[in-house]
Amino acid sequence: MARNVKPLTFTEVNKAKPREKEYTLSDGQGLMLSVRPSGSKVWLFKYQKPYTKKRTNISFGSFPEISISDARKLRLEALTLLAKLIDPREHKEQQTQGKLAELEYTFEKVSESWMAVKSSTVSENYAKDIWRSFELHVFPKLGKLPISKLTAIETINTLKPIAAKGSLETVKRLCQRINEVMDFSVNTGIVNSNPLSKIHSAFHAPKKKNMPTITPEELPQFMTTLSRASIKLTTRCLIEWQLHTMTRPNESSSARWSEIDWGKSTWIVPAERMKSRREHSIPLTPQMLELLNIMKPISGHREFIFPADRDPRKPTNSQTANAAIKRMGYQGKLVSHGLRAIASTALNEQGFNPDVIEAALSHVDGNEVRRAYNRTDYLEQRRPVMCWWSEYIEAATRGLSNNTLSTRNLRVIGD
DNA sequence: AGACCTCTCGCGAGGAGCCT
DNA sequence: AGGCTCCTCGCGAGAGGTCT
């Protein structure tokens, strides 16, 4: 039976003097204050462990940091746990363990684990790009924070300066990457939910800026300027090659002699060099073959068709064409990538099958179902299209407008 | 010499257990 | 249940050793 104990008063506890030996003051129901010879006063709760019924005690902290009423609240909590057959100490340990674990999982640490998984599905360079963006914009403010303590408002405030600078695309990517880390920590059981899933809506979406380009009508002027421009022959040929083949700057500048199938009159860009990671074949037109003939004495003995100016063992830098176009006075009006847009516009205006045009541009079909059924690359249908386009460029070079060309006077080459 | 690391040791909070 | 005493272990100060 519980003994009848008179509850302690503040004065009793406050005035309790240390003695040579430790002594205790009881408040009842297992709660007592241990007064130590050093003068420190510690709240202890004495109880029987559930099941084993072994006597033990747990500390509730020191007086005056923990007041009498605090200690009584803690006693009530402990008694409630005991009623449910939960050992208050084990419960407390579990809670501290949980808290400790939470504190250990900082945003930076979890990001590292996430990156270990992520890096297997992305290229090395992209993985580096992701990590660098975290190092620059996220880790300085949020890296050391436990991931469980991360709030939307704090994360948004961290990204605000980047948005204010106008780097909305960076903000969008950071939001997306941070969310990948958060989802990872949910899936691995570090946190229960992701409070950051909507942070992107706190920012303006980046406005897509289409790469500047000229209209097909302006092509003759461009070709004239190109022919008069003070640029190296290799760069000139590269720009023309890019224009004729409708390839992306990186795909055309790194073209290798080994990728040319002379027999089938086709240039085969291997999958790993394509943006879409799918092999891309381009039917060669007489105009393209002519460009290769010009380059042969220059680089025929080398790996790359358009070797770099400084080190001919390397391909021309993909920015070289852009720099040349800029110097030609087309800054803000045309970039190397825009050459593809001219082709697309001209071919669509001419009424060619849009699917064939898309295939020529090696655009991946946005429609997944259509993509699944539409595996053909229209290689043979593309030959006349490419020839028409090459003729069109040639006409532009002679200063003719597109009206003088029609699909009737096509010359189909290859088999 | 100063910086940095490792080890030792005392203190004290909290836990264990016997006595009444 | 309450009282009493002793034990354990983590922590931090500081001594001492090692590296640059």
TrEMBL record:
Domain Tyr recombinase residue range list: 209-386
PROSITE patterns in the cross-refs: TYR_RECOMBINASE
Residue spans crossing the bilayer: none
Gene Ontology MF terms: DNA binding
Highest taxon of the lineage: Bacteria
BP terms from Gene Ontology: DNA integration; DNA recombination
Pfam family, one: Phage_int_M
InterPro entries found in the cross-reference section: DNA_brk_join_enz, Integrase-like_cat_sf, Integrase_catalytic, Integrase_DNA-bd_sf, Integrase_DNA_bind_dom, Integrase_recombinase_N, Phage_int_M, Phage_Integrase
Swiss-Prot/TrEMBL keywords: DNA integration, DNA recombination, DNA-binding
Gene3D superfamilies: 1.10.150.130, Integrase, DNA-binding domain, Intergrase catalytic core
PANTHER family, per the entry: PROPHAGE INTEGRASE (PTHR30629), PROPHAGE INTEGRASE INTA-RELATED (PTHR30629:SF6)
Family: Belongs to the 'phage' integrase family.
Protein name stated in the entry: DUF4102 domain-containing protein
Lineage of producing organism: Bacteria, Pseudomonadati, Pseudomonadota, Gammaproteobacteria, Vibrionales
